[in-house]
Structures are given as structure tokens and as C-alpha cells.
Amino acid sequence: MTNIGEAICKQCVEIINDLLRRFKIDNLELETMEEEVDPDDEYECLICKQQ
């Protein structure tokens, strides 16, 4: 199973986490991957579809 942070870009993760905090959903927070994404990988954000 892949980490959801691998499939969602940092900008979208921040937006989602902000929404979760606003709606008081404290027990759920997405984490971004700490490692840099390899630019050669075909990597597309699941939300905004940017690579």
C-alpha cells in the first residue's frame, strides 16, 4: 500500500489539512512524504493533476 502523501502534492495536502482543522476533524491529518519526489518518476497529484 502506498502512502497517500506520494500521490498528493504538498500544496493540496496543506489545503486538505487546513480544511480538516477548520471542521474540527482532529484525528485525521495527511502527511507529506519527506523524501524528494524523483523528477523522472511519472508522478501526478490525485487532486490537482499537476506533475
- Radius of gyration from CA coordinates: 12 Å
Question: What is the average per-residue confidence, as pLDDT, rounded to a whole number?
Answer: 74
- Structural class, judged by helices and strands? mainly alpha
Largest sheet: none
Question: Helix proportion of residues, in percent?
Answer: 25-40%
Order of helices and strands, N to C?
A: H
SS field, number of helical segments: 1
Give the termini separation.
Answer: 21 Å
Strand content: under 5%
Low-confidence stretches: none
Explain the layout of strands and helices.
Blueprint: H1 10-22
Structure description:
This protein has one domain (1-51). The mean pLDDT is 74. Helices cover 25% and strands 0% of the residues. 4% of the residues are buried. With 51 residues, it is mainly α. It starts with 9 loop residues before the first helix and ends in a 29-residue tail after the last helix.
Summarize the structure.
Helix content is 25%, strand content 0%. It has 1 helix and no strands.
